[in-house]
Structure formats: C-alpha cells, structure tokens
Amino acid sequence: LVVPDFPTIPFIEGDGIGKDISGPSQRVIDAAVSKAYGDSRKITWKEVLAGEKAFRETGTYMPDETLEAFKEYLIGIKGPLQTPVGEGIRSLNVALRQTLDLYVCVRPVRWFKGVPSPIRYPSMVDMHIFRENTEDIYAGIEYMTGEEKTKKFRDFLINEMGVDKIRFPESSSFGIKPISKDGSERLTKAAIEYAIERNLPSVTIVHKGNIMKFTEGAFKNWSYDLAENEFAEQTFTWREFEKIKKEKGQLDADKALEAAKKDGKVIVKDCITDAFLQESLLHPWDHSVIATMNLNGDYVSDQLAAMVGGIGISPGANINYLSGYAIFEATHGTAPNIAGTGKANPGSLILSGVMMLEYMGWDKAAEHVYDAMEHVFARRKVTSDLHAQMEGATLLTTSEFADAIIK
Ligand code: NAD
C-alpha cells in the first residue's frame, strides 16, 4: 500500500455521539502526525455524508458520493450510524461493507493499565479478532412467515429437498446461512498473514462446526486446508498434530508441536464457540488471532471488548486486503442516551485512528497516540463510562480527554 505524504481521508461524522467524538479524535491524530513527522506529512480530512446528517442535507441516508469517496481515497474512517427505520435499508454499515466488499472486521483487544477489567489477568490479553463480514446468517437472506415467497420456499424444502414437515410449521420464518469456500479462505488467509507479520503465536478458528457441520464445520476444514497447503512452512495445525498422534503416538505429536513452536511457526487450532467464550475469559493468553464467521464474530467481539474496558475504547476496522479498501470505525453505536452531553468516550474512534495510521505505515504517529493514551489512563483520567468503575479517578469530558492525550 502506497500512501502519499499528504493524503485526503474521507470521514463520516456519525449520528448521536458521532458529532461529539469525531472532531476530538481528528485533533489527536493530527497532533500525533505532527509530532512524528513535523511538516513533512499531514492528513486532509474530507467530510462525507451518511446517516441522519446526510438525510437532512440530501434526502438520502447513504449518498452515492460517499461511497465514491471511499472508493477514490481507499482509506476512510467513520463514527457510528443509526440504522434508519422503515427505509428498506438493513443497515448503513452493512451497505458500506457490502459495496466495498470489506470482508474482514479486525478488532484488536488490548488492555491499558488502570482500566477496570472483570478478569484476573487483563495484562495478559493480546487478542486480534478477524470476523468475516459479508456472509453467514448476516447476509440478509431472510423469509418472513406468511409471505408468498416464504410459502414457496417452504414447499420447495419439503417437496424437493426432503426436509421433514415437522421441522417447518407453516408459521415459520427462516434465514439462510451461506458460508463459501472462497469467503472462508480469504478470511483465514488474512488472519494467518497478520499473525506471521506480527510474530503472533497462534490463530484460533472459532466455529460451531459440531452442530452446523456443512457451514461452520466446512469453514473449519477449509481453514485447516488453507493453512496446510498455502502456509505449510509457516504454520503447524492441530489437525497435523492429531494425525501424528494417531499414526505415531502422543510423544511424537508433542515433539512435533514443540519443534514448530521453537521454529516460530504459527500454531493454527480450533475451538467451538461456546467453549471459546469461556476459554477466552479464563485463559486469554492461549489465543492470539481469532478467525471466525460473522455471527460468532459479533458475539465474540463484544465479549472480548468487555474484558479490556468495553466498547467505548475498543477499535475496529473493515478491510478488503485484496483491493486495499479500508474503513476504520468506532465499534460502539450512536449512544443516543448520552449524545451531546460530553460523556462519550472518544477512545474507540481514536484507537481506530491508530489502526488506520498503522495500516498507512505511519507507525511512529500510531505509537505516539497509543503511548499518550496509556499515560492518561495510568494517571486515572477517564470519561464517564469508566469513571463510575474507578474510585478516585478524575472525570473528563470527551474533549478534555482528547486534550489530555494531546498534552
Ligand atoms: P450503543 O453502543 O450505542 O450503546 C450501548 C451503551 O453503551 C449505551 O449505554 C451507551 O451510552 C454506551 N456507549 C456506547 N458508546 C459509548 C462511548 N463511546 N462512550 C461512552 N458510552 C458509550 O448501542 P445501542 O444502544 O444498542 O445502539 C444505538 C444505535 O447505534 C442503534 O441505532 C444501532 O443500530 C446503532 N449502532 C451502530 C453501530 C455502528 O455504526 N457501527 C454499531 C452498533 C450500533
């Protein structure tokens, strides 16, 4: 990815608290870029409209110009968007992800010293979620009970596909869960490459293949195939471990695993989602990069975020690693209950900006923001979401928190 020294970055301000966090986040990023590179690099922010603001000004929630701007400039950033009710749009976020085919949602999960956590060893958390973004039950293929096409589809399933009637009472609504080989492979490939680039020890495939064998189970198998075929030199899989164990015994399998670890290979393993939700709370250090399908990824993302201070400080990015398109975004919603009050934590959007700087290769600026935030948290200066859980901490408004980071 070649980024000019003076790039234009389109941004969507966002609904609700979007207005509160957008400006302060940009100020922090600008300050870090200036500290890192002086006058030799600078971002020009270009506002593009979406959501309520777009509707007020243009009569549509997602103007074509907005999508075009993200295509033209490749990299963008956005605040949260409220899903319009009754507009025939499932979600503006989904529309963006599908238009640009942003097939991975990346969410790093790291803890800042001083931030309250419900787990015992938060400092051991260094996880990176790779959630598939375009398939699964979230593809939006749903059939509502009573509709003609639902009846037809039900008849087809019963008459042509031999599905037992008892499983489909006439009052059923249903949805389709497409999981493709290509979709699984590009997700897992991105996760493995990310682990290799960053020297991370493992990739865990999180799935419900024990129950949904031909969708979630296929995702697991395709992922193992990909690791063994395309990354044979750089990975060692649990499937290989099991094979050695069966053919040569436990001792040889253990030896092979130890040798792979010693060689710095990425260990590719799998875990069933329900077990993973427990596992990640009890032994977070056992999981480094997590590759998972859309629905499970949604659940896993918020649980892991809660381990390190919640969605107010958890960043995210939607990326197509093949085309380079990337939109960095706050992971929380529009928080209408606190919009305009100065209570919103801009941390999630600021850290999404850090991910953006890293993606651009502007690592020095990214480190400045990260270090400064660490410094502010260590001094127990926080916004209201964290303040309530931290006795004796100093309460800052959204803007004051950004100023403290800049200072
Ligand atoms: P939410 O994330 O907006 O709020 C959940 C809770 O977390 C609220 O109590 C809120 O005050 C708090 N919170 C969220 N972000 C915070 C922050 N930065 N600082 C402090 N507190 C914060 O979730 P919701 O209430 O379920 O959704 C509200 C709207 O947001 C809905 O319209 C939903 O569709 C939309 N939404 C958008 C996105 C997105 O754009 N990526 C994601 C989730 C929800």
UniProtKB/TrEMBL annotation:
Task: List the cofactors.
Answer: Mn(2+); Mg(2+)
Q: Which residues carry this modification: N6-succinyllysine?
A: 78, 220
UniProt keyword NADP, yes or no: yes
Q: How is the cofactor bound?
A: Binds 1 Mg(2+) or Mn(2+) ion per subunit.
* Residues that hold D-threo-isocitrate according to the record: 91, 93, 97, 107, 131
Q: Where does NADP(+) bind?
A: 345
Report the residue ranges that make up the Isopropylmalate dehydrogenase-like domain in this protein: 8-405
**GO molecular function terms here?**
isocitrate dehydrogenase (NADP+) activity; magnesium ion binding; NAD binding
Out of the domains of life, which is the source?
Bacteria
The alphabetized list of GO BP terms reads: glyoxylate cycle; tricarboxylic acid cycle
Q: Which residues carry this modification: Phosphoserine?
A: 91
Which keywords annotate this record? Glyoxylate bypass, Magnesium, Manganese, Metal-binding, NADP, Oxidoreductase, Tricarboxylic acid cycle
Residues that bind Mg(2+), according to the entry? Answer: 298
Sites annotated Critical for catalysis: 138, 208
Reactions it catalyzes: D-threo-isocitrate + NADP(+) = 2-oxoglutarate + CO2 + NADPH
Q: What is its EC number?
A: 1.1.1.42
Which InterPro entries does the record cross-reference, listed alphabetically?
IsoCit/isopropylmalate_DH_CS (IPR019818), Isocitrate_DH_NADP_dimer_prok (IPR004439), IsoPropMal-DH-like_dom (IPR024084)
SUPFAM superfamilies per the record?
Isocitrate/Isopropylmalate dehydrogenase-like
How it assembles, according to the record, is:
Homodimer.
What family does the entry list? Belongs to the isocitrate and isopropylmalate dehydrogenases family.
Q: What is this protein called?
A: Isocitrate dehydrogenase [NADP]
Q: What organism is listed for this UniProt entry?
A: Draconibacterium aestuarii
The organism's lineage is: Bacteria, Pseudomonadati, Bacteroidota, Bacteroidia, Marinilabiliales
**What is the gene called?**
icd
